[in-house]
Amino acid sequence: MTNEIRMGRAMEKLIIQGGRALNGVVDVSGAKNAAVAIIPAAIMASSGVCLIDNIPDIEDVNCLERILECLGCRIKRDKNSAVIDSTSVNNLNACTEEVRKMRASYYLIGALLGRFKKARVELPGGCSIGVRPIDQHIKGFEALGAQVKIEHGAVIIEAERLVGANIFFDVVSVGATINVMLAATLAEGTTILENVAREPHVVDVANFLNTMGANIKGAGTDVIRVTGVKELKGCSYSVIPDQIEAGTFMIAAAACGGRVRIDNVIPKHLESISAKLIEMGVEIIEEEDSITVISNGRLKSVNVKTMPYPGFPTDVQQPMSTLLSIAEGRSIINESIWECRFKHVDELKKMGAEIKVEGRTAIIDGVCKLTGAVVKASDLRAGAAMVIAGMIAEGVSEVHSLDHIDRGYPKIEEKFRSLGADIVRAEA
Ligand code: EPU
Q1: pTM, rounded to two decimals
Q2: Where are the domains of the chain?
Q3: For residue 190, pLDDT beyond 90
Q4: H helices then E strands: how many in the chain?
């Protein structure tokens, strides 16, 4: 996206007339946090092309597509699929404004290091939800034999050879797990990664790499064993459904009331969210690849602590706080992953929510109703939280700064409109 288009998005708003129940069927798109790792991983194919399906139509993916093209990849993209030919990569210097802006650009480090043994990649940006260090990524690359320098805001990395190692991560990190796994795939010998993240998207990236010819075992447990291979080749792959988009729809249905069937999901990935909603009094029906949420009347308060998978995902904490703001009684949210993920609370308060934030804890006293207001999306999931707030509030709300929402939710207003919400996009 050019700066002008990005500014354009930032200047748009959603206008929501609240108070409508949600009913019907909605389809979940491919997982953002899997796609934004799988696309850079496709750089590692030194022969053949990668045909990737079920890619979400979001700005983070558009941005990665342009970054890969700058590196010399040839890409043919349809809305939900991409053919990536990485045989022509000729630039190992990923230093554009787009690389700086998005978080997942850090996966270029592991992918380029694995295949070419060197890279220069600008330090990543992303949502402002707390300090986002990459020390564990660097520790992993160094253990594999790479030399790493940070100069002028870029990671400069090089290795004569990459050799398998035993690496114990100090924190459970999705990004470090995937990034080091990428590089280890093309290292000599075996790498054992311990205390790794078990998120569904970690498993999806491992499955993608294995389809390209890698030898990775244990993804989805807390130890991953990577036996290095000489090269990876193109393949066909379909990205898993988005656990967080599905969770957002579940929470929206619970908050607005009604009956919503959410299709193209893996119910197992949603268990922590289903369990909380059931505790609140929501009815959940799980089928093989769909989940139905039925909600009538006022729900009970619950306490939530965000945890790495299979715990309650931090990425649905903000939408959940909107739901809890109208539940009966006091709820407490403890955000254990990010130290600064309550920026949306001030916006919810403008709509009448009663929430007190103390460090990483939010104390929410449920109110009978929210009222419409002009609010902004301070980050991606905060944006989803505000859209849900607008849909349950009495009267009209406006949600601004849509560039954040468009980075990660494909056509959010169209999907909610198809369920009966009164929501339109307009110039701000
Ligand atoms: N951490 C370190 N050192 C590191 C890496 C992480 O201390 O080297 C800490 C972080 O500060 C944080 C914790 O470890 O406290 C977990 O961070 P993690 O590395 O797992 O986060 P991430 O990879 O940067 C991904 C998602 C986030 C999601 C987190 C946690 C992508 C592109 N982003 O971020 O998604 O919140 O995992 O599940 O996959 C979102 O989609 O809205 C989003 C922010």
Answers
A1: 0.96
A2: 3-29+241-427, 32-238
A3: yes
A4: 15, 26
